[in-house]
Write a structure and sequence with these properties.
heterodimer, A: mainly alpha, globular, B: mainly alpha, 74% helix, extended
């Protein structure tokens, strides 16, 4: 059942993105930026956690979860360190994604030849 | 015959452009995006039951694995072909983030390691990080003071 909801919710978020491409004629960069901001806004109202509890990877794999993780780490540290904690914690949960993407992006670009 | 001018060119040329197949595009995006997320769910259950990660921590190795696979697929040229088929279905998941980093770096490889690869790594993904951090910073401070006051 978890797999079913991961499929439906994850696919649904992608359909919203596709509609923004086709109907609103936005570029991928605009769509991604809007999705990240949307994820942060949803987390500010504590809504995104419910979606994760419901859909699992269907909510953590789309890029919206990046905005959610940024704000989540920031708020966790803000509880302990006051408002400077926002800056301390902002990359706390997303560092895996960013560090891995930089490392493998760099290595793959070194090793492979550009196609096409 | 209507006259074309620069002002309403966009409006007038609209009638002559082919309409994108909205439904098929959405269906492709739904299936591919859904499958990528289902694969993520499979990975995270694997990390939970085989490697003893908690449900919350399991998203870290899951995301790392998917980024590794997406970077490799970009290197082999597979991911970009998937992107042409699936549109947002392959762009919206975190694998699309890895793809945008790797493909930007690959594209500028000929300019050298420092000025080509390293400088252009965040050419496309940079906007995601900038808007994410700005939004999270502002919202985080608002939330902090909101909790102080109420």
């Amino acid at each position: 059942m978890e797999f079913f909801w991961a499929f439906v919710v994850g696919g649904g978020i992608c359909v919203i993105g596709q509609l923004l491409f086709d109907v609103a004629k936005l570029t991928p960069a605009h769509v991604m930026s809007s999705f990240v901001v949307a994820g942060a806004v949803l987390d500010a109202f504590d809504l995104y956690d419910n979606l994760i509890r419901f859909a699992g990877a269907g909510a953590t794999i789309p890029i919206t979860s990046f905005g959610h993780s940024l704000l989540h780490g920031a708020m966790d540290q803000a509880d302990d360190h006051g408002f400077i904690g926002v800056a301390i914690g902002i990359f706390e949960l997303t560092s895996t994604g960013i560090a891995t993407a930089i490392l493998f992006g760099f290595l793959v670009a070194l090793i492979f030849k550009p196609k096409g | 015959m209507q006259s074309f001018d620069a002002k309403n060119y966009k409006q007038q040329s609209k009638d002559y452009q082919p309409k994108p197949p909205y439904f098929m595009n959405c269906l492709k995006a739904f299936i591919v995006g859904g499958l990528i997320c289902t694969f993520g769910q499979l990975l995270s259950e694997m990390y939970i039951s085989w490697f003893g990660f908690s449900e919350k921590d399991a998203s870290n190795p899951t995301v790392a694995t998917m980024i590794l696979l997406a970077s490799l697929a970009t290197g082999f040229g597979v991911y970009d072909r998937l992107g042409q088929f699936a549109g947002a279905g392959s762009a919206v998941p975190i694998t699309g983030f890895a793809n945008s980093i790797t493909s930007a770096a690959l594209e500028h490889k000929s300019e050298g390691i420092v000025l080509g690869i390293a400088t252009n790594l965040f050419k496309l993904a940079g906007s995601v990080i900038v808007f994410g951090v700005v939004a999270a910073y502002v919202l985080g401070i608002i939330r902090y003071f909101w909790h102080l006051l109420f």
